[in-house]
Amino acid sequence: MSLLDQIDKERIPVHVAVIMDGNGRWAKQRDLDRTFGHKEGVSAVRRAIEAASKAEVRFLTLYTFSTENWKRPEAEVKALMSLMIQAVANETPELVKNNVRVKVIGDIDRLPSDTKGALDYCLSSTSVCTGTTVVLALSYSSKWELTNAMRNIAKDIDQKKIVSEDINEDLVNSYLLTKDIPDPDILIRTGGELRISNFLLWQIAYSELYFTDELWPDFNEDSLYKAIIDFQNRERRFGKTSEQVSQKS
Ligand code: IPE
Ligand code: IPE
Ligand code: MG
User: Fold this and answer.
1) Whole-model pTM above 0.90?
2) Cβ contacts of 97 within 8 Å, gap of 6 or more
3) What CATH number is associated with residue 228?
4) Taking CA atoms, which of 73, 101, 135, 210 is between 20 and 30 Å from 180?
5) Residues 190-194: contacts with CB under 8 Å, at least 24 apart
6) Does the Cβ of 139 fall within 6 Å of ligand 1?
7) Ligand 2 atom closest to Cα of 63?
8) Domain-embedded: residue 149
9) Whether 230 is catalytic
10) CA of 111 to the centre of ligand 1 (A)
C-alpha cells in the first residue's frame, strides 16, 4: 500500500508549513556550488506542491527566503533571486493547470523589480485557482511581521479606528499577513536543524513540529506523506486532558 493510501483522508492537515533547509549542504556533499542545491530545491518544491495537491492539503506554506537570508553573500542572493524568476515563470502554467493558487507573505518591496514582476504574474494568473493554496514566505520573518502588526495597531488606535480594549487574539490575527489562512497544523523542517529561524512564531503556537534530517533537495512525495502520517498519529490536546479529547470524538 502506498504512503498516500495510508493517509486518513478524513484527517488531512488543513495547513502544512515547511522550513525548506539543507540546499547548501546537499550541494557541498557533491562538491558543487551552493546554487546547485538551490536549483535542486526548486524540483523539490514542485514535488511538494504536487504531493500536497494530491493529498488535498488546503494550504502549503513554504519558507523560501528569510529576512536574515539577505545577509548571505551577494552572489548567492543574486542567484536565488534569478532562480526564483525562472522557477516562477516556468511553473506558472503548470500551477494554473493544477488549479494551485499562489500567495506571498513577506517584505516584497525588498525584492528586485524583475523578481517581483515574475511573482506578480504568477499571483495574478493563479488568483482564480481554487485548489491548494501555496503561500510563499519570501523576504519574510516573523519578528518583522509582528513588528509591523504592532505598528499598524498603534496607528489605528491613534486614528481612533480602534481602542486598546479591542485588542484580542482575533484582532491581532487580523493584522498579520496570514489573516485569511488558518494556523499551520504541522510545521516540517528539513535539514536536521532543530530551530524555527524566525518563521510564523505567532501562528505555530499549537502546530505539531516535525523535524527530519532529509535535506530539502531530497524531499519527495513520500517525505510529505510520512510527515502527514506522523501528524495523524499524534494526539492534539490543546491544553485539555487525553480523556477529554477522546470523549469528544
Ligand atoms: C535553504 O537551504 C534555502 C534557503 C535558506 C534559501 P540552505 O541554503 O540554508 O542550506 P544549508 O542549510 O546551508 O544546507
Ligand atoms: C531558514 O533557513 C530560512 C529558509 C528556509 C528560507 P536558514 O538556513 O536560513 O536558517 P538558519 O540560518 O540555519 O537558522
Ligand atoms: Mg540552512
Assistant:
1) yes
2) none
3) 3.40.1180.10
4) 210
5) 190/18, 190/19, 190/20, 190/21, 190/22, 190/214, 190/215, 190/216, 190/219, 190/223, 191/19, 191/21, 191/22, 191/25, 191/215, 191/216, 192/21, 192/22, 193/21
6) no
7) 6
8) no
9) no
10) 18
Q: What is the mean pLDDT of each run of 10 residues along the chain (249 residues)?
A: 96 98 98 98 98 98 98 98 96 97 97 96 98 98 98 98 98 98 99 98 98 98 98 98 88
- Per the structure, the complete domain to which residue 19 belongs is given by 11-141+184-234
Residue 211 main-chain phi, psi, to 5 deg: -110, 135
* Phi, psi of 44, rounded to the nearest 5 degrees: -65, -35
CA of 19 to the centre of ligand 2 (A): 7
In a domain, 17, yes or no: yes
In terms of phi and psi (left: phi > 0; alpha: psi -120 to 50; beta: otherwise), the region of 160 is left
How many separate domains does the chain show? 1
pLDDT, residue 249, reads 58
Cβ neighbors of 201 (< 8 A, separation 6 or more) are 142, 143, 146
Pocket of ligand 1 contains residue 217 by CB under 6 Å = no
With both helix axes pointing from N to C terminus, report the angle between 113-126 and 74-97 in degrees, rounded to the nearest 10.
20
- Nearest-CA residue for ligand 2 atom 10 is 197
Where do the DSSP E strands lie in 141-216?
Answer: 186-189, 208-211
